[in-house]
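Following up on my earlier message about phenylalanine. Here are the inputs again, as you asked, copied directly from the submission form:
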Amino acid sequence: MTLAELARAAEGIWAQWAEAARNLQSLEELEALRVQILGRKGRLTQLFSALRELPPSEKAEAGRILNTLKERIEAALAEKKEALAQRERLERLARERYDLSLPGKWRPLGKLHPLTQVRLEIEEIFLRLGFDVATGPEIETEYYNFEALNIGPDHPARDEWDSFYLGEGVLLRTHTSPVQIRVMKERKPPVRIICPGRCFRRDNPDATHSPVFHQVELLWVEKGLTFAHLKWVIGEFVRAFFGPNYEMRFSADFFPFTEPSAQVHIRKKGTEKWLEIMGAGMVHPRVLEEVGYDPEEVTGFAFGLGIERMAMLRYGIEDIRLFWQNDLRFLSQF
Ligand code: PHE
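Thanks, got it. Here's what our run produced:
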C-alpha cells in the first residue's frame, strides 16, 4: 500500500461513517458501526496495521492522517451517541407518560368489624377518663367466674349465667366480671380498669341472643367512691357514645357482686321508650374482702355492658345474628 492509497482509504472510511451516521436510528446501530470502523478488526484498525508496509519516510504523514481521522470519528461518535441517547430518553418518557385521565382500578378496602369499631370506641372513651384496658382468660374456673363474685354453688343467680362447662369446675366465662377479681388480686387500689372480652352462655341464638357475645366490664376502686361517681362515669359514657340527646335512668336490680345494684336505661329525649344498656353497682364488700381489700378503707363500683347491644342501639340493628354472618352487604355499611 502506498501513502496515496492509504489517504484514499481513510477518506473512504470517513465517507462510510458520514453516510451511515445520517441513517442511524438507535444506540445499537451506532455501536455496530463503531465496531465496523474502530473495533479490533475494524476498517480503521486494519488501516493502522497497514502503516507497517509503508517506507519509513511516509510513516509520519500516514500516521498523522489516520490519527486525525480517528479523532474526528471518535468525536463524531460521541456527539451522535449523546444525540441518540437524548432521543431515546424523550421517546421513553413520552411512551411511559401517565395518563391521569384514565379511570382507576377499583379495589375493595377492608374494614374493621363493626363490633371491633364499637369496642375500640368504648376503650377510647374510658382511656380518656384515665382507665386502663385489662384482659383475662376466656376459659375460667368456677372460682373466678362465680365464687369470688359472691355467687355460691347453690346461689339461684347461677341459673342466670347458664354456662358451658369444659370439665369439673372449668367453664367458658359467662361474663367479664372474673377479670375484676384477677386484676384486684394483682394490684393495690386505686384500680381503674375496663375489661373488654368475649363471653359465652348457653343461649339459643335468636334475634337478641347469641351463645357468644362481647362485654366491656368497668371497675373503679378507690378511697371515697360513691354511687354518685358511678352515675357520673356512666353519664360521661352515654354522652360520649350516644351523644347529647339521650337521658338516662337508674332502676333497682340485683347482682350478687354489687350492692346496691342498678340497671341503666337510656332514652332519646322526646321519645317514649327506655332501652337497657347495662348492669351496674357498688362492688359488694364481700368481693372486696375476697381479693384482700379492706371495705372499710376503699369502695368501688362496676358495670358490665354488651358490645353487641351498644352496636345494635347505635346503628338500629334488629338482629344480633347479623354480626356473625359475615355478609359483606351488612359489614360494608360500617
Ligand atoms: N356481670 C354482669 C352480667 O354479665 C354485669 C355487671 C357487671 C353487673 C358489673 C354489675 C356490675 O350480667
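One observation from looking it over: The radius of gyration is 43 Å. Hope that helps, and feel free to reply on this thread.
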